Amino acid sequence: MTLGPGRDGLQHERTALAWQRTAVTAVVVLLPLLLVDARLGAWPLVVLGSLSTLVAVGLVGRTFPRIRHLHGHHGRHERHRGLARHDRQDRHDRQDRHDWHDRQDQPAGEPSSPWPPMRAVALVATLTTAEAVATALTVALS
Amino acid sequence: MDGLTGEAGPGDRPEPPTQHRRPLSVYGHGEEPDPRFSLANERTALAWMRTALALVGGGVALISVGSLATLPKWSALIGAAVCVGGALLAWRAVTGWARVERALRHSQRLPAPRALAWLAGGVILLAMLTLVLTILQLLRR
Fold first, then answer.
1. Are B92 and B48 a contacting pair, CB within 8 Å?
2. Residue in B134, B99, B94, B107 with CA at minimum distance from that of residue B30
3. Dmax over Cα atoms in chain A, in whole Å?
4. Which of A15, A32, B12, B27 fits B21 for a cystine, CB–CB 3.0-4.6 Å?
């Protein structure tokens, strides 16, 4: 059975793109609140929001090693694609598993788990929510 | 070794060390699943995460519009409730990823996506609440 080209390379590409979309959304979502707080004259909230934005940028920065990691393995799969084109499906699958095992043999510094950046994005959502609740209370009580 | 092709099979290699991969509650047990399944699980969790961020963004938008225009004050509180729902959903995405990855590593059945029902229920509830409050606001005029 012949599969479409780049099946495995696209897996990494799609995952890296999903990370990029998530990171961009996480950074952008807090910004309107800053404008609202400034317009309301709630300067403590503006300061808090600015600090939260800086923290958010730092936390979202933790997603970049993951994206780099995924792009790095994309290249490796691209090389295998040429081989696999003339190969049988079972051999292709076996190569996938070899790649996966190779990926785990990386130095400890390079993250290969999506958990830390995912937790960071959840923390950004929590920070934004805290800022939003504070702003909403300011609006409701004003 | 694979007897037919002379290649090493996936089972011939020892399991790689997992000490540097966190969380250990996920990577400390079981066997490496097919990478395509792991990446699909990661993308699904990210889709949930973006849904959560969209909820937070919607709440922020409601609060922003409520403060800029002359909307009733309860609209800001509903916006805050939407944001809280978004934050809860974001953490649910993280735990959901871990649960599915654990199931994949143990070749177990995947857990049912219960968060979907909660999300739909929450959105419907907030929409109904907004509708009722809007109607009451109109009747008061």
1. yes
2. B107
3. 70
4. B27
* pLDDT (tens digit per residue) in A61-108: 878 888 887 777 654 544 444 444 444 445 555 555 544 444 443 434
CA A34/CA A27 separation, integer angstroms: 12
Residue-wise burial string across A13-41, b where 16 or more C-beta atoms lie within 10 A, e elsewhere: bbbbebbeebbebbbebbebbbebbeebe
Residue of A98, A115, A121 with shortest CB distance to B23 = A115
More confident residue, A141 or A89: A141
Asked whether A121 and A23 are in contact (CB, 8 A), the reply is yes
Question: Is B87 within 8 Å of A129 when comparing Cβ atoms?
Answer: yes
B10 CB neighbour count, 10 Å cutoff: 17
| C-alpha to C-alpha distance for B105 and B82, rounded to whole angstroms | 34
Question: What is the complex's ipTM, to 2 decimals?
Answer: 0.81
Q: What is the rounded CA–CA span in Å between residue A115 and residue B95?
A: 9
Element (DSSP H or E) covering residue B2:
none
Domain limits, chain B: 34-140
Model pLDDT for residues A13-36, shown as the tens digit of each residue? 888 889 889 988 888 888 888 998
The sign of the torsion formed by the CA atoms of A38, A43, A48, A51 equals positive
Cβ–Cβ < 8 Å for B56, B89: no
Q: Say if residue B99's pLDDT is above 90.
A: yes
Say what the alpha-carbon torsion angle B40, B45, B50, B53 is, to the nearest 10 degrees: -170
- Residues of chain A with C-beta less than 8 angstroms from the C-beta of B14: none
Give yes or no for a contact between B32 and B21, defined as CB atoms under 8 angstroms apart: no
Which chain B residues are within 8 Å of A128, Cβ to Cβ? 56, 60, 83, 87
Q: Which helix (H) or strand (E) holds A11?
A: helix A7-28
Tokens standing for residue A72: 């790095």
Comparison of pLDDT for A101 and B88, the residue scoring more: B88
Spell out the domain ranges in chain A.
Answer: 7-141
